[in-house]
Write a structure and sequence with these properties.
Chain lengths: 116, 115
């Protein structure tokens, strides 16, 4: 497998459910990201992990809980979400950008989440 | 503060027309990077180009070309002889040293190319 893979591609969950989104990258990158894409809104960066350490939490509600067990895998655990959390959740990876040499990010196809 | 503005929300053209997607950015950094991504209906963002702030040369890749002008803080993207497969949402993005090279995306421009 190559690139960035996200599962599941589609998810419908109730507000009391607990679910997890999974992201896997096989590009040898050290940084991984979660983005949220809602209708008619810009891409919102949610979390950044560099070398498995969380370096950015963009004021994301605690009902979203990320986990990065190693530099190839990233999870987003979801609990008691609201209907307004329905969106496309995109995972991305890149080389560690903090060294001052920024490289492009590679994105997965996203998980289309619907909260009912 | 860093900001990317894509003023065109949607553009509709007929196949074979040329189309330019505008991108204007704001940053106080002297070192920064600009990107364009394409998001087809399948969802993933596909990287198209990266340009650093010290390289103002325009670039051409097949039917795609980019015009980077620091004087106007613009990084416009032109598709020549557009095709139906070019229909997608296109995002311009900025990453600068002040923000720890966190990538900031514009709102995107949805391009419809009709046969």
């Amino acid at each position: 497998e190559t690139g960035v893979t996200q599962t599941p591609r589609h998810l419908v969950m109730g507000m009391t459910n607990k679910k997890s989104l999974k992201c896997e990258q096989h590009l040898g990158h050290n940084a991984m990201y979660w983005y949220k894409q809602s209708a008619k809104k810009p891409l919102e960066l949610m979390f950044v992990y560099n070398f498995k350490e969380q370096t950015e939490n963009n004021s994301v509600p605690s009902r979203f809980s990320p986990e990065c067990p190693n530099s190839s895998h990233l999870f987003l655990h979801l609990h008691t979400l609201q209907p307004e959390d329905s969106a496309l959740y995109l995972c991305a990876s890149s080389q560690d950008p903090t060294g001052g040499v920024n490289t492009e990010a590679f994105f997965g196809q996203g998980t289309r989440l619907t909260v009912v | 503060a860093q900001k990317v503005t894509q003023a065109q929300t949607e553009i509709s053209v007929v196949e074979k027309e040329d189309v330019t997607l505008d991108c204007v950015y704001e940053t106080r950094d002297t070192t920064y990077y600009l990107f364009w991504y394409k998001q087809p209906p399948s969802g993933e963002l596909v990287f198209l180009i990266r340009r650093n702030s010290f390289d103002e040369q325009n670039e051409i890749s097949g039917r795609y070309s980019w015009n980077f002008q620091k004087s106007t803080s613009s990084f416009n993207f032109t598709i020549t002889a557009s095709q139906v497969v070019d229909s997608a949402v296109y995002f311009c993005a900025l990453s600068g040293s002040t923000g720890g090279f966190k990538t900031i995306f514009g709102a995107g421009t949805r391009l419809f190319v009709k046969a």
